[in-house]
C-alpha cells in the first residue's frame, strides 16, 4: 500500500491526474476527519502525514489508510466503481443495538477447525456462529422490514467475491487480546466497499472512528501468542465464496439467529423458513 505522501505527490505531479478533483481527509482529535482540497494542503506544515486518513477523487475513495484501500491507478482506467450515495429517503438513521448485525457466515464445511479452537477459547461460542461482522451494531430487529431494502441496495453494488482466510492476528485490549483469523488476506477492497455502502445508508450504525478491519474472532487470551501459534498450526489456508450477507438478531437469551439473507450483486432477499445456524453447538447440559 502506498503512503499518504506518495499519493499526494503522485496526484500533484503526474500530468494524468487533475489535483482539483481530489479531496484529502485529515484526522481531527475527537471529531470526524476534516476535508481539505488537495491543492490547499501544505506538505511539511502543521499537519503531519500520519494524520492524512483518506483521498477522494470526484467523491469516490481511492486511498484509505484504515480500510486498506489503494486504487488510485484505477481512476486512470475509469475502473473505480462508484459507491452510490443514497437519496435522503434511502437512509435509516436509527440508533444501533449490539443485539443485531450484518455479517458473513463462512460455509459450514469450514466450521470444524474454527469451532475446535473457539470451544476452548471463545466465551461467545454459544451466542455467535463463526462470522465476519460487516456492520455491528445494527438497527433493532423491529426495524428490519425498513432496513432490508436498504441493505439490498447496498449489496447490489458489490459483486460476489472470493475470501481467502489465512493469517492469525490479534487486537490488544487493556487486560487481554482478541485473536482472529483474517478473511481479507486476498483483497481488502470488497470488504471495505460493502462496509462503506452500508454505512452510507445506516449512519448511526457501526463504529466510524476506528476504521474497519474484517476479522473472524477465534477467542480471547491474556497472552495472545500461544493461542495465535495454536491457531496457525491448526488452520490451513481456506477459501470461500462471499455471495451473501445475513441479518442476525438475538432475542432474549437465545443465540444470534439468521433472520434474512441478502445476495451480493443482485440484492435479492431470502427469508429462511426457520432461523437456524448450521453446526451451532448444543446447549449446555443442566448442572
Automatic annotation (TrEMBL):
It comes from the Bacteria. It holds the Pfam family 2_5_RNA_ligase2. Residues 1-65 form the MJ1316 RNA cyclic group end recognition domain. InterPro entries: Cyclic_Pdiesterase, MJ1316. Residues 265-287 are annotated as: Disordered. Residues 278-287 have a biased composition (Pro residues). Keywords: Ligase. GO terms for molecular function: ligase activity. This is 2'-5' RNA ligase/uncharacterized protein (UPF0248 family). It comes from Streptomyces nymphaeiformis. The lineage of its organism: Bacteria, Bacillati, Actinomycetota, Actinomycetes, Kitasatosporales.
Amino acid at each position: 500500500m502506498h503512503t499518504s505522501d506518495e499519493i499526494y505527490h503522485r496526484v500533484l505531479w503526474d500530468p494524468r491526474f487533475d489535483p482539483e478533483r481530489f479531496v484529502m481527509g485529515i484526522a481531527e482529535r475527537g471529531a470526524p476527519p476534516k476535508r481539505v482540497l488537495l491543492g490547499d494542503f501544505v506538505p511539511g506544515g502543521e499537519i503531519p502525514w500520519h494524520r492524512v486518513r483518506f483521498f477522494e477523487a470526484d467523491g469516490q475513495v481511492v486511498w484509505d489508510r484504515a480500510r486498506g484501500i489503494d486504487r488510485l491507478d484505477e481512476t486512470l482506467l475509469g475502473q473505480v466503481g462508484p459507491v452510490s450515495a443514497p437519496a435522503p429517503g434511502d437512509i435509516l438513521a436509527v440508533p444501533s443495538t449490539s443485539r443485531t448485525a450484518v455479517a458473513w457466515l463462512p460455509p459450514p464445511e469450514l466450521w470444524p477447525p474454527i469451532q475446535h479452537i473457539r470451544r476452548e477459547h471463545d466465551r461467545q461460542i454459544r451466542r455467535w456462529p463463526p462470522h465476519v461482522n460487516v456492520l455491528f451494531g445494527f438497527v433493532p430487529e423491529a426495524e428490519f422490514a425498513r432496513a432490508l431494502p436498504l441493505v439490498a441496495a447496498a449489496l447490489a453494488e458489490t459483486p460476489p467475491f472470493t475470501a481467502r482466510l489465512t493469517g492469525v492476528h490479534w487486537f490488544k485490549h487493556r487486560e487481554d487480546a482478541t485473536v482472529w483469523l483474517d478473511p481479507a488476506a486476498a483483497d481488502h477492497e470488497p470488504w471495505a466497499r460493502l462496509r462503506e455502502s452500508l454505512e452510507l445508508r445506516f449512519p448511526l450504525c457501526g463504529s466510524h472512528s476506528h476504521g474497519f478491519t474484517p476479522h473472524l474472532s477465534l477467542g480471547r487470551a491474556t497472552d495472545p501468542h500461544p493461542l495465535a501459534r495454536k491457531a496457525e498450526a491448526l488452520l490451513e489456508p481456506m477459501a470461500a465464496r462471499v455471495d451473501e450477507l445475513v441479518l442476525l438478531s438475538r432475542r432474549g437469551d437465545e443465540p444470534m439467529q439468521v433472520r434474512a439473507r441478502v445476495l451480493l450483486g443482485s440484492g435479492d432477499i431470502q427469508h429462511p423458513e426457520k432461523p437456524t445456524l448450521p453446526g451451532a453447538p448444543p446447549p449446555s447440559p443442566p448442572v
